[in-house]
Amino acid sequence: MTKIQFQADADLRQAIVTGVLRREPKLDFRSANEAELEGIKDHDVLSIAARDGRVLVTHDRKTMPTEFGQFITSQTSFGVLILSQNLPMSGAIDAIILVWEVSTAEEWINQIMTFPF
């Protein structure tokens, strides 16, 4: 069983990444800036996250679910976690840490989850 590693999408608030890492420094959460994702199309973002074995964390409820569905017809994804933009910062941080604590990377393969549901 492998620990989940996360990749922030370019639309995810950086404060969420910072807050997660402050609360749980052992968690592996790469920022969009570190991965150079600004201006990259959804399919390519999914490819980068998949190549690196990371669950993509995004606020994109409009285009990402459809793009994800198309992506997994031909490639393997390590998963996508969509956080509502209306979710308070503390709730977003808690959700990511909870996912990291209670699930494994294998459980997220080709899975997408929206939080809150």
Describe this structure in words.
- InterPro entries: DUF5615 (IPR041049).
- This is DUF5615 domain-containing protein.
- Residues 6-112 form the DUF5615 domain.
- It holds the Pfam family DUF5615.
- The chain has 117 residues and is of the alpha/beta class.
- Helix content is 39%, strand content 16%.
- It has a five-stranded parallel sheet with strand order 2-1-3-4-5, with helices on both faces.
- The chain starts with a strand and ends with a strand.
- The chain has a single domain (5-115), classed as Rossmann fold, CATH 3.40.50.
- The model has no long low-confidence stretch (mean pLDDT 96).
Q: Based on helices, strands and strand pairing, what is the structural class?
A: alpha/beta
What fraction of the residues are assigned to beta strands by DSSP? 15-25%
Number of E-type strands: 5
Low-confidence stretches: none
Question: If you compute it from the alpha carbons, what radius of gyration comes out, rounded to the nearest whole angstrom?
Answer: 13 Å
Give the neighbour order of strands across the main sheet.
2-1-3-4-5
Overall CATH class: Alpha Beta
Give the overall silhouette: globular
How many structural domains does the protein architecture include? 1
- CATH architectural group: 3-Layer(aba) Sandwich
First-residue to last-residue Cα separation: 26 Å
Count of helix runs: 5
Q: What is the averaged pLDDT score?
A: 96
Helix share, percent: 25-40%
Helix-strand string: EHEHHEHEHE
CATH-defined fold name: Rossmann fold
Largest sheet: 5 strands, parallel
